[in-house]
Amino acid sequence: MTGLLAGASVLAAAWLGWPGVLIGSLLTVLWMQVSGSRRDAVPALAAILVLSSAMAVRASPGQQAAPLSWAIGTRAIRGEVVSSPSRGASFDTFTLAATEAEWQDQWTAVTGRVCVVGPQSPVVALGYRVWLRGEPVSITDESQDIRGMLNARGCGASVFARVVAIDATGSGWLRAVATYRDRFSMTIRSLSPGDSGALMSGLVTGADEALSRKRKDAFLATGTTHITAVSGSNFSTLVTVLLAAGSVAGVRRNRIWLGLAIVGVWAYAVFVGLEAPALRAAIAASAAIIALRAGRRPDLVTLNVLAAAAMALVVPEIVWALGFQLSLVASVALAASATVEEGDGPGAVVASALWATGIAQIATLPLLLPLRGELPLVSLPANLAIGPLVALAFPLSAAAGLAGSIWTPAGGAVALPAELAANGILASNDWFASIGGTIRVGAVHGLVAMIIAAAALCACLSVTEGGQRLWRQWPDRMARMGAGGQAVFVGLLAGTAVALIAALVVYR
Question: Which phi and psi angles does 386 have, rounded to 5°?
Fold first, then answer.
């Protein structure tokens, strides 16, 4: 529990600064009072104070992408491509770190990130230095849903590029990996043309821009866009497949096999671009594999929170990335609510998966509020319906891409069941999108959404098996504390509530 408290305290400090340090310390003392672990309270509290204070010193104060004042009147931009371009049906999308802007026929040095939608020729790649012609639009002049998307990608403006020219090509291993990822994505899409192939590619690589506009709108309307974001669920499936293969081969706990499994996890993380959700999931998955080697059952909740806290200590601003937030909350919810044990039958496995999916969906819904200011009514049933199909389609799509890269007929054979699963996802999503319905809440600050999400996550976890066990033990633990301990408990709880309310008021 100390590790979980330490990780949560660091993340609270990253989001709230010094109030987060206070909240983390209060929660730590609160837990020590309830659990009766007073002997270890002082060193644990000291360690948490040091870590959370270090985080508060380095915390980034805000998450909003700064508007680019130079965007007004600009006609052309030069810069470096800093994200792997996603190839859609008609256009490519990528993020450009601008270095120069043309204004009134003169080039001026500038800074800032711009989200670009441009032609598919010439083909650009990560690390390329390009010149493009178009009129950028500042983030402040976009609609709320577009602002949310730009903010999530760190862009202060967007631009539709009419012309793109390459000033210099990129180099290095990241460029080589991005090229292979694009080629792999095209292989999957060639095995299954249309939206099914685009979805299969998105499940494996995270690039879903090739989906038709109609299908994109359907995913948006049902709150299921996250299925093509590479995160903890992908790595969980990958580790499960690798360990299952080891069990079949009789080498499940073999040191060499588990080492190869860790290499496989990191190879996939590099393959998808080492984005924040993939990096956190890879750290947690590697730690879980090491725990298995040591003969211990890994605590996936603690591992995910500690991995996220370690990343925040190194790169504080990462906590404001929407993908990082969604992946963390969903992974914690899934890890805490999935209760599959060895020997459980298929029915128990499916029931556990549906329960965990529902918990994760409820916990992550508040994080989507800043994007559009509304929540789809069909989000929960839509996610429950496609959850099992997504778990099936991801490994099959990856296997189809690997087989197709070696021999096309073999890839086509493996792609058939993956295509069936993908079509099932699309058909289900289309049906739920036709029902429609949203709850509009208006503009919501990102930090407020995070606090609401944290509260929703705690509420969801309270109904899991571990949460119910804690509730059953609560009266006995309170009785052992005595009147003085209970008074301290109530005071600490009230102080934490006041600190959270103050944060909500400040960032309303």
Answer: -95, -10
